[in-house]
Design goal:
The structure is a single chain. By secondary structure, the protein is an alpha/beta fold. Helix content is 33%, strand content 14%. The protein contains 14 helices and 12 strands. A 6-stranded parallel beta sheet has the order 2-1-3-4-7-8, sandwiched between helices. Strand 3, helix 3 and strand 4 (114-118) form a beta-alpha-beta unit.
């Protein structure tokens, strides 16, 4: 018998029901696949960061102790309940759940045989700093630098015009965001255009767009966090560029960094980011780039990241991949033996999006329990049969109901650093018309 541990998906989810506590839908999903499954709420109600206020024990739970304890207790309970105990143990999580999976890989490599960590919130304090830095760029609603949701939709359409065809097919999906460096000056209003023109932007708004797609740097020019990947505008605009300080970044400075619930988030600057980065309580950054202990333990790690992620830039997962190569002094082929990373085009934050995001990382995105179509079962096959996944097959669902809508088409997502290229034969909806190539 196997054991799977599924922790709450995110400290930064949009839906209130998704962050109140234990992710029961994920627990149910694991059980439906035949796993003995345990979930946890990270030691606090996830609707705000207020439980961290003057409570370092709650923060420690959030950083690592809850997931570590949950695994220990889950194994004990499974042994007591089932005469045969369990054979292998697995972890599945996304966002903050992804960060926790990476924390297991980095600090507790002997506890889990296979870890699936989606859109991991690693470089955590850098991430919250990056999320906070959008408000100073856009300003409040109505300011000259602010763009409405409709104006961001205009930007999105222009980005697709510039970048969609770079993979060989114009299908509304950017397969390789590394090739996309959008120039928003093409949207600049002509002299004399109406100030509220719906088809163009002011010079100040164009500058806002360029700043949003620039890496976030410290006051001395060092990298704090990579750029937002282009293509996510329609998902990010209502949350990240809405003219308000980002809620969870605000909470971090109020209840952790400064221990001051009255701190005014509208005053945030890069200096506040630098103060927070120096703290890094309980090593919440989860940014250790030496996975030698995981490799030596014989465990496997699989990460995936949506290329339309509106909350955690997929560029950060790419950065971590390259940091691993450099720190460990190995080639991609050696890293592939125990760690594989997949970019998922058309996937927003952990689920949803414009493309084939259905990879079976949760019930609402499951098209099949076969390893080819299901990222969790692909991990099981890797651990138990020694068959490592070369691609992760995603389903593009026909409607907003996800897996309940039926499948419109499938697309195989590539193992990084390979990217998908349209071969020019057949329709873009035909998965056989795509191939994974090295850039």
């Amino acid at each position: 018998m196997c054991v799977q541990f599924s922790i709450q998906r995110s400290f930064q989810q949009l839906e209130l029901t998704e962050i109140l506590g234990i992710q029961y839908s994920d627990v149910d999903y694991g059980a439906s696949l035949g796993f003995a499954t345990v979930g946890a709420n990270n030691g606090h109600n996830g609707t705000s960061g207020e439980p961290f206020y003057q409570a370092p024990e709650v923060l420690e739970d959030f950083v690592y102790r809850s997931v570590h304890t949950g695994i220990t207790v889950g194994k004990q309970l499974t042994k007591q309940f089932y005469d045969e105990g369990f054979g292998k143990s697995y972890y599945l999580g996304c966002s903050t759940g992804g960060r926790q999976g990476m924390k297991l890989a980095q600090d507790f490599p002997d506890e889990i045989d296979g870890i699936v960590a989606g859109a991991p919130a690693i470089n955590f304090v850098g991430l919250l700093s990056w999320s906070a830095h959008f408000y100073p760029i856009t300003g409040p609603v109505g300011s000259a630098t602010f763009l409405t949701v409709d104006e961001w939709s205009l930007v999105h359409d222009e980005i697709l015009r510039q970048c969609d065809g770079l993979d060989g097919a114009e299908d509304g999906i950017i397969e390789d965001t590394d090739l996309c460096h959008p120039d928003a000056t093409t949207l600049l209003c002509n002299f004399g255009s109406a100030a509220n023109a719906s088809s163009c932007l002011t010079a100040q708004q164009v500058n806002t767009v360029h700043e949003v797609f620039s890496p976030f740097l410290s006051s001395n020019g060092s990298l704090i966090y990579p750029r937002m990947q282009p293509g996510s505008e329609n998902f990010a605009a209502p949350v990240m560029y809405n003219g308000q300080p980002f809620q969870y970044s605000k909470d971090w400075w109020r209840y952790v960094v400064y221990n001051d619930p009255t701190w005014n988030a509208t005053t945030w600057t890069v200096k506040d980011a630098e103060i927070a980065l120096r703290q890094n309580p309980y090593n919440i950054a989860t940014w250790n780039a030496d996975l030698t202990p995981l490799r030596d333990a014989g465990a496997k790690l699989l990460t995936y990241h949506g290329l339309q992620d509106q909350l955690i830039s997929s560029d950060n997962s790419k950065l971590y991949y390259h940091r691993l190569l450099k720190t460990m002094g190995i080639e991609s082929s050696e890293l592939d033996e125990f760690y594989r990373f997949f970019t998922v085009s058309g996937m927003a934050h952990c689920s949803g999006g414009d493309g084939a995001y259905g990879i079976g990382n949760q019930a609402e995105s499951e098209s099949s329990a076969q390893p080819e179509d299901n990222v969790l079962m692909a991990m099981v096959q890797w651990v138990e049969d020694g068959v490592a996944p070369e691609t992760i097959r995603g389903a593009k669902f026909a409607g907003e109901a996800g897996a309940g809508s039926g499948v419109e088409y499938y697309r195989k997502h590539c193992r990084y650093p390979r990217t998908n290229v349209f071969k020019g034969a057949g329709e873009y909806t035909d998965e056989a018309s795509w191939e994974c190539v090295l850039p």
